[in-house]
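EI: anyone free to look at a 148-residue chain?
SC: sure, send it
EI:
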Amino acid sequence: MLAHNICISVFCKPEENIEIITKKLLFLVPFNLKKEKIELKKRTAIGFNEKKIIILVVYLKKESHTNLFLNNLANNLTDEQKSLIIKQAESRLDEELNFFLRLDKSKLINENKLWLTDKGDCYHIRIKIAAFPHKREVALKTIEKIFS
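SC: here you go
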């Protein structure tokens, strides 16, 4: 087991095309959500200037789903991106062993490329790393295993 669960989310502003953003979110998940009985949740929030923002969320809990997702993610990143993730692993991992990645939304939408970003307009990925024993060093080794 590599991850206990994975949460993928993205904000969709009123002026953006929700179909395209949803399609790219589904591109990150390499299986049919309906068939696997996984819900694509839509929440509404109020953003800047009182604009209504839609938040799309996919939550993966089953080991088969998390493993497929992680394999797909690693296979679609360049070697350069993967080594950057490994290099930054320490700063991307919190005390609860949640590992955070952000993928550039416009690069994914316009170029079909998974590209790391530190900016806010992105696809957020939170991976709850499975580490036995529950230690930071073990989690970092798992992250290295996923992305090498």
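EI: The chain is about 40% helix and 30% strand.
SC: 👍
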